[in-house]
Amino acid sequence: MKILIAGESWITLSTHLKGFDFFMNADFGGGADKIIDSLKESGNQVNYLPNHEASRRFPQTRDELEKYDVVMLSDIGANTLLLHPDTFSRSQRTPNRLKLLADWVREGGGLAMIGGYLTFQGIYGAGCWHETPVEDVLPVTLRPNDDRVEVPEGFNPLAISQHPILEGLPTQWPYFLGYNKTVARDDSQVLMTAGDQGDPFLAVRQLGAGRTAAFTSDCAPHWGSTEFYEWDSAF
Fold first, then answer.
1. pLDDT, tens digit (0-9, with 9 covering 90-100), for 151-166
2. In 8-69, where do the E strands start and end?
């Protein structure tokens, strides 16, 4: 398959105060390396757009989207796709990529959203995916506000349905440290729940000719624990 992964990157700014003096430094980080390597080892072609590149380079036309079988959104806010730099900085018209993505799914595309602080709704609701065309095609509905559920004591997701996605995986999964709280749609299938909480952890949906999946925890730290990150069955 040809897969496009967008998001799962960050830039950290640090201020160092040392008495009278101070300085600042910046660092770039990302959590997509393992999932990208795993997908490539399985024979897939992967194109990765970190957040700072996705705003400009994420597909703007149906033809560009048709190059891919699957789009994966991980820890990327809706505004990054909605506000192309030509619109935000130059007041020019650009395609609504949220509508474009949703239409592409209905006509045969595959979409997966992976949880985090800026997917689903995320911290302070800043992900802004609620009431967007993309939410309309997901297997879950979103809360209008901050939907994080922090579980510092950890939880183990529970498999409650059989599905080809889970074939060959152990029934006992590593622990996770949080997830985005969502509600399953009536026409979706919840495959795993977030431990005893019972909220969707992994859900799928057939929508027209397309398919969508929601993985409500993270594929990288901190919600994705070290135990998960080093789990042979994960990547």
1. 999 999 999 999 999 9
2. 9-18, 21-30, 45-49
C-alpha separations of 72 from 5, 32, 212 in Å: 5, 11, 10
Structural domain boundaries in the chain: 2-229
Q: Report the amino acid identity of residue 161.
A: S
Phi and psi, residue 133, nearest 5°: -60, -30
Distant-in-sequence, close-in-space partners of 122: CB < 8 Å, separation ≥ 6: 77, 116, 146, 147, 148, 180
Residue written as tokens 């390597």?
Answer: 37
**pLDDT tens-digit map of 129-144:** 999 999 999 999 999 9
Q: Are 211 and 204 contacting, i.e. CB atoms less than 8 angstroms apart? A: yes
Do 190 and 140 contact (CB within 8 A), yes or no? Answer: no
Contact 161, 168 (CB under 8 A): no
Right CATH for 2-229 from 3.90.770.10, 3.40.50.880, 3.30.70.360, 3.30.470.20: 3.40.50.880
Distance CA 149, CA 103 (A): 30
161 CB-near residues (< 8 Å, 6+ apart): 189, 190, 191, 192
pTM for this predicted structure: 0.92
